Amino acid sequence: xNYINSDYLDEDxxxxxxxxxxxxxGPASYLNTLNIGKLIDSYDIVVRVNRGLDVISNYPExxxxxxxxxxxxxxxxxxxxxxxxxxxxxxxxVKWISTIPYSDYNGNCHNNSLHSMVDKNFIDEAKAxxxxxxxxxxxxxxxxxxxxCRSNTGFAAIFDLLNHKPSELFICxxxxxxxxxxxGYKDGCDRDEEEFAKQCFVSKRHVQPSQWGxxxxxxxxxxxLTADSVLSQILKMENFSREEFTQIIHTN
Length: 252
Fold this sequence. Notes:
seven-stranded parallel β-sheet, alpha/beta, single chain
């Protein structure tokens, strides 16, 4: 089942990911209730998003320790991609840096150019020190049309990875901001994790109900997709609401 156009895949990335078991780790705070760090590290390839490496040392039993691919928006701000520390990424064993192309507020994307806020020095250093992957604009645009907005970097990563043919893609720590970020993920920001997540929850640029609804539909059909126990229940919710999510957490 293809969700994006296979004519626009990265052949080197395909060779790296194809037939591998891949774990994609998000920053949701509910990960602190799950003791799945060893499970995450057991996967052939572990993928993290934006500032995901920043919390490893505090919660290895919950988020694991291994990182092979980092999807980062490339915007050097603590609110976004973080401080983009190349030496830190190297010390953590990162092998690939991946990112997404620019789209406008509504998700329209017309070429492989990067957002004007992306740090060009970081991109140059990433290419010099790691394997580098850019999700093709055709594929990013395709996902954006389904969700009718500019997809979050971490959401786009799901479909970018899927189309590079893993044998399994295990998603964990994704809540669509139904809860907070894991503590420490937004260190250095003016807003704390809880307030930041509440604002992301109602974003008009990255529309969370649309992204949740699309993954909910895909998850029920795609045998390669698996999820942690909380996300599995999120994707079975009847309504996209923090009230329903709270009931899940209390019974998990």
